[in-house]
Amino acid sequence: xxxxxxxxxxxxxxxxxxxxxxxxxxxxxxxxxxxxxxxxxxxxxxxxxxxxxxxxxxxxxxxxxxxxxxxxxxxxxxxxxxxxxxxxxxxxxxxxxxxxxxxxxxxxxxxxxxxxxxxxxxxxxxxxxxxxxxxxxxxxxxxxxxxxxxxxxxxxxxxxxxxxxxxxxxxxxxxxxxxxxxxxxxxxxxxxxxxxxxxxxxxxxxxxxxxxxxxxxxxxxxxxxxxxxxxxxxxxxxxxxx
Length: 242
Ligand SMILES: Nc1nc2c(ncn2[C@@H]2O[C@H](COP(=O)(O)OP(=O)(O)OP(=O)(O)O)[C@@H](O)[C@H]2O)c(=O)[nH]1
Ligand SMILES: [Mg+2]
Prior knowledge:
It contains seven helices and seven strands; from the N terminus they run βαβαββαβααβαβα. By secondary structure, the chain is of the alpha/beta class. The longest helix is centred in the C-terminal third of the chain and has 35 residues.
């Protein structure tokens, strides 16, 4: 059968699980994908993952912390120094190939401005991962991350959604300011049970690494959930025969 989609970009191919940024605030420290996931991918038993399923990631956080720039750096490799507020929401699609399986990620870029929050929050539902962004040079934006998380969790299943806390504009913070900010952010990340990252969209530092990590962990949890569903169905079949 002919495929309607162009092949996945060569720089979106993942064969090994990308490592976390800081061991102290890390969703998992395994140095390879879950063995069940590896064998499911080898046998092409990933169910809807890789076929119809599109995984949703939402990016939330205060206005002007750099959410749009982060997504644009990753998806388009560009950086705009002028601030253009996101109105409501925007989204980008990114296609990966992980362990040989095609994987589509929808990145939802939401508005931080209070007056757009109402529109933006209607798009929070059904996220597999939540990225809470703050500005590494602005402590108040870190303090607000808990509120952003709370709002986003209202629309999602807290037990299955993956959380990432990401500090932006690393290029603007000096080493001592950065060290203090990171100490605070690690504390917040641990409380939230989020994985911590810091990036710069201006220089590109850690941006690709961060989104690859998001994609890989989202993929892994989607495949594991799919395997669980299949197992539950099989057990159901056996039980219903008697
Ligand atoms: N130096 C530097 N500036 C950045 C970086 N990321 C974003 N900025 C600047 O910060 C401002 C806000 O960036 P945006 O990405 O538009 O912020 P946002 O979080 O999307 O804002 P809203 O859409 O209003 O919620 C812009 O002027 C960007 O150029 C960075 O990594 N380094
Ligand atoms: Mg924006």
